[in-house]
Structures are given as C-alpha cells and as structure tokens.
Amino acid sequence: MERAAGSQRRVNQELASLGHNTPNTSAVERHNGTARRMNPHQVRRSLAFARLPHVRQTVSDLVNGIYNFCRVNRSLRVKLDEPVRRRQYAQRTPAMAIGITDTVWSVLRLLGTVVVPNPCRS
C-alpha cells in the first residue's frame, strides 16, 4: 500500500474529528469514478493514451486540482443565513469545505498558480 502524504495517526485524528471510525468507501469510490470520467487516460477503452508515466501523473494532478478547486460539489453546500434572491445555499468546492480557499477558482487561476512539489512523492 502506498501513502500519498501524512501518517496513519493523522488520518485517524481527522476521522475522529469528523465523527467517523473508517473512511467512507462510497465517497472514495465516487471520487475515483469522477476522476476516471474527467481523465481519459484512466478509462479502460479509450483512444486517449499516455505512454509516459509523467504525462499520466501530470494529467491526474490537473484533474485533482480542477476537482478540488474549480468544481462545486452539491453535497458540500451550506444553507445561507439569509437567502440572496432565490439562492438559499452557498455552493462550495472541496477546497472551500476544508478551509484552503474561500472562492471557487477558475481553471485559468489554477493553471497560473505556482505549485510547490510534494516532498512525499518520489
């Protein structure tokens, strides 16, 4: 099993703070299905192929960035204290839900952001 970042103790702390004992399998598989739909290199039968591993990794990183910063997730919305016209809920991205950002990013902003390499990835 490969770890992306963090430790088992940190994962257990985060799960305990959310009130869970184990990761939500349906949420993890839903994310995997969404990532597979967004990334043509992960689809089993496709004309899109990436022979080089760094190309597959780069596309996967881009898909993860778009999913977490640019796409709103309906299950993460929160009810507004006072409705704004007909809007009763504030839409949020996964990055907004955990407090990394406070706005929905555009893909242009995501591509223009300098990213520090992850030291855990070899």
TrEMBL record:
Residues 1-39 are annotated as: Disordered. It comes from the Bacteria. This is Transposase. It comes from Deinococcus radiopugnans ATCC 19172.
